[in-house]
Design goal:
Blueprint lengths: L1 H4 L1 H10 L8 E2 L9 E7 L11 E6 L5 E3 L11 E7 L5 E7 L9 E6 L4 E4 L6 E6 L6 E5 L10 E5 L7 E2 L7 E7 L6 E6 L5 E5 L3 E2 L20 E6 L5 E9 L7 E8 L7 E4 L4 E2 L3 E3 L2 E8 L4 E7 L6 E7 L6 E5 L4
């Protein structure tokens, strides 16, 4: 299991988490209020769509919107791509880019919103996805190994400040992406893309959860083909994973995606939770339900949706024009 693989590092990392390996700098931020239940990124702070995305918080019924960061108008401007909150609500790992950066040029940051302090965790290195362990002791992320000829991402483990890094997979012909740690911080799930180019859901280290249909047409400017499974997340009881499956390449280049779930022991076939010709982004799961962004490019509309996996009840917490690129919703700890 993940914890057993990394147990020696975990002991050493406990002290490392309280120190900074790089010089932190301050930036105007605020911590989410006590009423906030989730975080997400959007450019809707601006009057015109297409602006860099900032970090926002929202309460349970969607009526209290809080802007937590103010770096989109800085020089250089930041643009939030993905975020992963730590257990204490005020700290997080964030993947950011800049408006004029090349495609895929991202940087991983540690941020303390209450103190307004942040630091680059890995300078000059592209991190594709990140998750914070529920106990706060480590981060799990994907990146292309340095000093190698491979272009395939591996799964890495480190302390929240980037020290004690370990490559957990080291697979030259297999891409590990979008890792999520289980609620007890003992294992992880991720999407894996093999030599055929088809994405499937796995448990660490290489136990396949989904088989899915054969690969179809490629979605331009992405690593996905129709039939690919992506962005898994554990249920609160750890018995199930939710994920999304690419079903078509239309919808303004976003593709159409179904939201699905599957038992981690692969004892039964995946279940469709939400379907139809819309884009559905990476989900997150808590006792309040599964949250994700749903986008209809033709209608120029994105909704922040909470879905009950038991009753299929849908609640739209927020709607924005699609050009604001709302995404990466994450429940705050304890929700």
């Amino acid at each position: 299991m993940l914890r057993r693989v990394c147990v020696a590092a975990s002991i050493a990392l406990a002290a490392a988490c309280s120190s900074n390996s790089a010089n932190p700098f301050t930036t105007p931020t605020k911590a989410p209020s006590a009423n906030a239940v989730l975080l997400f990124a959007t450019g809707s702070w601006a009057a015109d769509p297409g602006q860099p995305r900032e970090l926002f918080a929202l309460n349970a019924d969607g009526t209290q919107l809080e802007r937590l960061t103010n770096c989109a108008q800085a020089s250089p401007a930041c643009d939030f791509v993905q975020l992963a909150p730590s257990p204490d609500r005020n700290r997080l790992a964030a993947i950011r880019t800049q408006p004029d950066a090349a495609a895929g040029a991202t940087t991983l940051y540690f941020m303390d919103l209450a103190r307004g302090v942040e630091q680059v965790i890995f300078a000059n290195r592209r991190v594709g996805a990140v998750d914070y362990s529920p106990d706060g002791s480590f981060i799990l992320y994907t990146a292309i190994p340095t000093g190698t000829q491979t272009t395939a991402e591996d799964l890495f483990y480190a302390s929240p400040d980037g020290t004690g890094e370990q490559n957990l997979t080291n697979t030259a012909d297999f891409r590990e992406r979008s890792p999520r740690v289980d609620p007890l911080a003992t294992t992880a799930t991720y999407e894996g893309i093999d030599s055929t180019g088809v994405g499937r859901i796995y448990l660490f280290s290489q136990t396949r959860v989904t088989t899915g249909p054969a690969g179809g047409a490629a979605l331009p400017d992405t690593p996905y083909v129709v039939g690919a499974d992506a962005d898994p997340v554990f249920s609160p009881d750890e018995k199930t994973v939710a994920f999304r499956r690419l079903t078509g390449v239309g919808n303004g280049g976003l593709g159409t995606w179904d939201l699905m779930s599957a038992p981690v022991d692969a004892s039964s076939s995946p279940k469709v939770l939400a379907t139809g010709p819309l884009y559905r982004g990476a989900p997150d799961w808590s006792a309040k339900g599964i949250v994700f962004v749903e986008t209809d490019a033709a209608a120029d509309r994105s909704d922040l949706v909470v879905l009950s996996p038991d009753t299929a009840t849908r609640t739209v917490l927020r709607s924005e024009p699609a050009g604001y690129r709302m995404g990466s919703p994450r429940w705050l700890p304890g929700i």
